[in-house]
Amino acid sequence: MECVVQGIIETQHVEALEILLQGICGVQRDRLRVHEICLKNNPNLGNVASEVRLLCDLEQPEPTWTVKHLGGAMRGAGAEQISVLVRTMVESKVSKNALRLFNALGYKLDHELLRVGFAFHFQRGAQITVTVSSVNKMLKLHATDEAVPVTPGIQLVEVTAPASSENYTEVASAVSSFCEYLAPLLHLSKPGVSTGVVPTAAAAAVSLMSDGGGTTLFSPHTTRIKTAGLAWSI
Amino acid sequence: MEGVAMQDQSQQQQQQQQQLVPPQPVAVERLNQAVVQQLNLEAVKTRAISLFKAISRILEDFDAYARTNTTPKWQDILGQYSMVNLELFNIVDEIRKVSKAFVVHPKNVNAENATILPVMLSSKLLPEMEIDDNSKREQLLLGMQNLPIPSQIEKLKSRIDMIGAACESAEKVLADTRKAYCFGTRQGPQILPTLDKGQALKIQEQENLLRAAVNSGEGLRLPGDQRQMTPALPMHLVDLLPVGDGVHTFSDASGMYMKNTPPLSSNSIGNQGNLLQASGAQLIGRSAASPSAATSATSFDNTTASPVPYANSPRSGTNMMNTPSPQQQQQQQQQQQQQQQQQRQKMMQLPHQQQLLAQQQFRQSQMQGLGQNQMSQLHDLQGQQKFQQLHGQHQMQFSQPMGHQQFQGRQLASGHVQHGIGQSQLGQGNQLNRHLSQFSGAANSALFNAAQGTSNSQMIPNMSATVSSQSLLPRMQFGLAGNNPQRSHASQMLSDQMFNMGASNPGSMMPIQQQQQQQQQQHNTQGAFGNMQPNAQNLQSNMVALQNAQQNHPNFAQQRQQNQQ
């Protein structure tokens, strides 16, 4: 299971967001370049079509493959009260033959996309991963080198944290409290719920980018304080 | 000032209490009405009460936060604090007005206040305050105590002016920065910068696009014709995917087959089932090739010239095993036979694997082509039969076209086709068999064939003859395993074709095409299908009882006897 929220940010503010995240998370950012291939199988015998995603991390020296299955989201009154989306997720590393295997099993390519950006992995109440990436589509099959952004001016911000059925409430609250830190720049919501951009984003970005906002760090602690102090000393 | 104000406030409250508490005949001291109005004591009281309430509310909130261990919403709390601040200012203003009228509460000295009054009246500072004051004064007048007083005063005045100027400039800078960063004023509501409407709409559009793309892949799916694999695959995919030249179906298929034999062959089986739906492009691209193959080889069947379809059947004169593809052929369709022969020759020239692949493709094409070829022959049958019932059975994807094919039965369902669809259609075919067996007419032979339940044994020899791939064989066996145990031998199959229908499992999956073949065989070689005619009426009446095998049994028994000649 995982808790996930998504938000958007204008490309011009991405650098400011990076600074903010660096201040809050206290870790170095990791580059992100993932080729995501979404496979769907045709239900032959009346079963439901199932979907599986193959993620190829192109940033590593050797491309590493992961297979991921996203299940249905938690439903119900309790789910509506939680501000994050809780859904089943199964993930595993696989060898590069996974694509062939799934084709043999009858899974066909449904769509593919390329995410280029950066990510932060840190621990704050839960193991949280924040990815900021531009989502690119390929005009020709598998042509990752010629990918163009789906929306050039807007990038996607995703905050995910793995959870289990016992602790998902704590993880959800950890994720949502982390998201409050990002409030000056963007709003995060459940996938599928659109948020729009935040009006204070421009001002917050300016303040983050200015020197008073803290330079990139040698001491995460002080920078955190500095950045935090400026971002909401309104 | 504050301390005095508070004292006054308490004094006033005491006064009010004194006014309220003793309604007795004791002369109540009341303020002069005019003074009361001037002082507006009520207002002060209201303000004091509201301030008290605000503070207590904040305290309660904090208490609640502490108890439930949730993070407080700082925005709200700050707002509440600012409200409290405002109220305090207001009260202080009011008190100032009130305190102008009253200096001290106990007007008369009496025993009660004799001791406390001097303390209240003294203006001498408390010792700590006094020390503080002195030190501050020293600090202030440092270096000036020697000078005469006026100069001291002047110096202090200039100092005050300088400080005042500095404060003002600081305020100015703060205000300017606030404007530049759009922070809003310190007090009062924040004026959030709003986005331009048009811009907001554009952003909203883009956001919807992006979210849809990420979450459900909208806008990322390439239409079928654009799904041509780029010749320059990225590094991580180069070893994984076959790169076809995409020029000719054959060469494509052959190239891909050579590279990915196991997945290809197993894919083919699945694809055959999907073909009728004209499934979208696959990575391997075979299915894209096969529809074109279908159109090019309309009723192609990889049969030999021999009319006998079954390899192991003792009744078949010709040995089918001499060719890799024991496809069956209709005598009635000479044209098709010729075509088949031509294509077979073509196939012979290709390497074996490619033949298989091409056969598979052609089979698939045949399935699609069957409808066209056989419609004319079986018009009457179609009129008689009730397709709806067939659809009620196992809902296979290709139930509809298969229905056609059952009743047409002409074009042979080659063994390949059978096993292509066999696994998924077995149950359906079974049901159909029962009904079809009861139709009459020469054209019913196809029906009969379709209606006949066929077993693994018949399929398997065909398969082994046609498909050398290992993966196919076990799959087929598994698929048909549940079927008629009587059908262990092909010869038995032929003889028991009619009986088979009754006894076969309703739930088992039978390849319909193969059944057609069998029936056709019988028709061709034995001419034993005339016996179906008397049963035509029965069949029609029995069509309703789809699931009821027993109704069909008598018919089957008759036919069996007739068949066994």
TrEMBL record, chain A:
<protein>
    <submittedName>
        <fullName>Mediator of RNA polymerase II transcription subunit 18</fullName>
    </submittedName>
</protein>
From TrEMBL, chain B:
<feature type="compositionally biased region" description="Low complexity">
    <location>
        <begin position="513"/>
        <end position="522"/>
    </location>
</feature>
<feature type="compositionally biased region" description="Polar residues">
    <location>
        <begin position="402"/>
        <end position="411"/>
    </location>
</feature>
<feature type="compositionally biased region" description="Low complexity">
    <location>
        <begin position="327"/>
        <end position="361"/>
    </location>
</feature>
<feature type="region of interest" description="Disordered">
    <location>
        <begin position="402"/>
        <end position="428"/>
    </location>
</feature>
<feature type="region of interest" description="Disordered">
    <location>
        <begin position="293"/>
        <end position="361"/>
    </location>
</feature>
<feature type="compositionally biased region" description="Polar residues">
    <location>
        <begin position="313"/>
        <end position="326"/>
    </location>
</feature>
<feature type="region of interest" description="Disordered">
    <location>
        <begin position="508"/>
        <end position="535"/>
    </location>
</feature>
<feature type="compositionally biased region" description="Polar residues">
    <location>
        <begin position="523"/>
        <end position="535"/>
    </location>
</feature>
<protein>
    <recommendedName>
        <fullName>Mediator of RNA polymerase II transcription subunit 8</fullName>
    </recommendedName>
</protein>
<dbReference type="InterPro" id="IPR038795">
    <property type="entry name" value="MED8_plant"/>
</dbReference>
<dbReference type="GO" id="GO:0016592">
    <property type="term" value="C:mediator complex"/>
</dbReference>
